[in-house]
Amino acid sequence: MLSCRSGFNLRVQNQVVDPDSSNDVRGGMLGQYVMNGGEGPNSYAQNSSYQGGVIDVAKPILEEEISRKLDIKHISSTFRIADFGCSTGRNSFAAMQIIVEAIKRKFETDGKVMQIPDFQVFFNDKVTNDFNTLFSSLPPQGLYHVTGVPGSFHSRLLPRASLHFGYSCFSLHWLSEVPKAVLDNTSPAWNSGKVHYFGARREVCEEYANQYAKDIKSFLDSRAEELVPGGLMALLVPAVPASWNPNSAYTVLTEVYHLGSCLVDMAKKGRFYEDKIDSFNYSVYFPVPQELKAIIEKSDNYIMERMEILDNPGKRSLTGPKERASYLRAVNEGMLVNHFGTEIMDELFDRYTKKLKASPLFSDPNSDKTILIFVLLQRKPIMFF
């Protein structure tokens, strides 16, 4: 819970629902929120170079670990890979190519060229993800066969013991739901006037941390049923250092804080009712490394083969406040529109850009101290008694 400690004061939720939906935001149900689809100027496809930088830094690690740890002795005619949280595909395609080519080299190095299998890739994201853009953007090389798997990765998605390699990048910070207590005005954890846990009261931080631990456990338990014994899973999780000085650096938490402060400012100016803030919390959580490690180590289903802290070179693609605002809009606009409507979006992100410009920190990408946690897990053999 070190990631909760800061001098800032704010609250979060990515879970906003359509007013016509049966899912009530105050009940904590996750809305049908996804990244901006299509190829337009505000799309995720055009504004995800920050996330794409993860692939560059992870490439040599993925190649090394596949070469060292992948057991190919019992692979039959099809090798199955899944990307959990693929979005519209541009970054996912790069990762899948790296993984497939590394597996092929493993077969070649082991003298099994004639046994190289066909590859099937499962692209998973929420039901409302823009799968049309994903499928229409597929690379032409034909390295693998493609299957779309819509649904929440916090639950089972694939047949038992059918998956050889799991992968998830920049996705596991999303919670399955906003902690119910932070939306309950009778709870000590009610997060009134804020949109995230960053800098909030201890009770709010604890609710978010507990929800995160619960969701990571659900993810790991679901994948344990889907992975074959000995199968591998690579996770790239955005996180924050155990300590950092918000006066001289920023992280993704700072960005969420500033976006939330813009919403609060707009409510105070009468752009919408202030109770809209009280019913809105981002359902995201960014752990510190030891926190994630402790959650994973509680699982009896995996061997942790590697855990490493990485720096994201993609941060250098966000050269200024305007680029940072575009990246954040591509990620968050769907959620914000569901709760606040479309009419305030241009004003909101204009305010956000100006707020970043007013801070000299955001003119220097090297001031971004957000980190990435690389984790490689191996599914333990299933023991029968």
TrEMBL record:
<keyword id="KW-0489">Methyltransferase</keyword>
<dbReference type="InterPro" id="IPR042086">
    <property type="entry name" value="MeTrfase_capping"/>
</dbReference>
<comment type="similarity">
    <text>Belongs to the methyltransferase superfamily. Type-7 methyltransferase family.</text>
</comment>
<dbReference type="GO" id="GO:0046872">
    <property type="term" value="F:metal ion binding"/>
</dbReference>
<keyword id="KW-0808">Transferase</keyword>
<keyword id="KW-0479">Metal-binding</keyword>
<dbReference type="InterPro" id="IPR029063">
    <property type="entry name" value="SAM-dependent_MTases_sf"/>
</dbReference>
<dbReference type="InterPro" id="IPR005299">
    <property type="entry name" value="MeTrfase_7"/>
</dbReference>
<dbReference type="GO" id="GO:0032259">
    <property type="term" value="P:methylation"/>
</dbReference>
<protein>
    <submittedName>
        <fullName>Probable S-adenosylmethionine-dependent methyltransferase At5g38780 isoform X1</fullName>
    </submittedName>
</protein>
<dbReference type="Pfam" id="PF03492">
    <property type="entry name" value="Methyltransf_7"/>
</dbReference>
<dbReference type="GO" id="GO:0008168">
    <property type="term" value="F:methyltransferase activity"/>
</dbReference>
<keyword id="KW-0460">Magnesium</keyword>
